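Example record for the data management plan.
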Amino acid sequence: MREIRADYDDQSIVVYQAYSPAIAVAAVEAQRFVPPFRMERMTWIKPSFLWMMYRCGYARKEGQEHVLAVRITREGFDWAVSHAVESNVKGKPAVRVQWDPERGLNHEALPHRSIQIGLTREAVDMYVNEWTVSITDVTPLARQIHEKVRALDLDGARALLPVERPYGTSTAQNA
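Corresponding structural encoding:
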């Protein structure tokens, strides 16, 4: 089952990305992506906090030591989803999508699939220059949750997780 779960409100949705300190610190300070972030590269956004923790090892993997919560407009997110093609499709679309097994606190696969959205070309430009509302470094939260997981305090870890709920637009469900 495919399901987009996210932290969102009427105007915006939070997506996560993990970066090196150089990119993350500059982005948080500027409240937008600036060099050394490279506009020419595909950038993957993920609305699932736990999938991001799986991907970056709770902010412990090299080059992914900082986890950013990027609040973007829902209009931008919905545009990306509506223009996405599956990642295995040939060609050069502006947006790619992958559905991977959602992950739990110990990185175990869960029974539903979570979305990752790969932005290229004009989609990266819109993400950086139009859609981004705010950028917050949530690395301390990621590490705090990881410490609780390592101490087998899963209830304590769950209590710290961002509240994510199903994101239900007809566009999002059809991606």
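Summary line stored alongside the record: Residues 170-175 have pLDDT under 50 and may be disordered.
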